[in-house]
C-alpha cells in the first residue's frame, strides 16, 4: 500500500491505479453502506484518521480500514462519491502531493553511514587527517543529525539554492517511518517499529564544512530535505535490501543499496531510542552511498572542492528506487 498526503487540507490518501483515494472519506462511505453504524463519520475519524500522525498511530486498524474502503469503492460501491456527494478519488497527475511527514515529527539522518561514500570521500581528500576523521565517524556506533521538519519539500517542488553556497550537493537516501511509540528498544526487537518506507534527498551545503558545531547549519535551510513521494507500507520490503539511485539532469550519479549501510536501521532504532522515546511518524534516514558531488571531487588544499559536479540553479535532480518510487526537483535561484 502507498500512503500519500494530498490536497489543500493535507489528508491521508491511498494510491491506487494512478488515483489518490481519500482514505477517511472512503471508509466513512464504506461503513455507511455496509454496516448499521449510526455515526459512520465519527467512527471513520477514529479508525482511519485523515491526519497522517494519527493514521500511523492507529497502526493496522487504519491500514485495514483503508484497504477495506478501497476494495469496496473499486468493486461494490454504486458510485465514487462520498456521503455528502464529494469526490473520493482524484487523478494523481492533477493532485498536489505533499511530503509524507507527520506534523512535529523528528527527522533523524544517519551520518557517515555508507562505506563506499566515506571511502570515496577519503580518497579525494587533500587533508592529512581526513582519513582519521572519517574513521572516527564510522567507528563507535551510529552518528546522526536532525533535519527541521519545517524545511521539508515534496516531489515536484522547487528547491531553493541557498545564497550562502557555491557548492550545493544531493544525497539519495531511504527513510523508514516509525510506527509505534517505544524507548530502549533492543536491536532484535526493532523491525516491528518500522511502519513504512519513503525516499529522502538530503540537500547539503559543502562549502568548507567541518564536523563541528556549524555542521547543522550546512544541513538545515529552506527546502533542505525532499521527502516522498509517498510511504510504502505492508509490501514486505527488507529494510536492508532497498536499491536507490540519483540522477542529475538525467545522468546517473549514485547507484546504491541499503545493504551497504554501516549501521543498519535496527541498530539506529536501538541507538536513537536509548533513554529517548521514539514516536509514530518519526523518520530515520539511511545516509547516502557514493556518487555525491563532494565524494566525487578532489578536495583542494584550502579545503574546498571544484564546483563542476555540484548542482546549480536550473539543474533537475531525481532520487528513485524501484521498490518505492521517485522524487524529482528543479533547483531554482534564491532570487526566484
Automatic annotation (TrEMBL):
Domain of life: Bacteria
InterPro entries recorded: FAH, Fumarylacetoacetase-like_C, Fumarylacetoacetase_C_sf
Pfam families: FAA_hydrolase (PF01557)
Record has Protein transport as a keyword: no
This protein's record includes keyword Metal-binding: yes
Disordered, as annotated region: 287-308
Keywords carried by this UniProt record: Metal-binding
Similarity comment text for this entry: Belongs to the FAH family.
Protein name per Swiss-Prot or TrEMBL: 2-keto-4-pentenoate hydratase/2-oxohepta-3-ene-1,7-dioic acid hydratase in catechol pathway
Species of origin: Arthrobacter bambusae
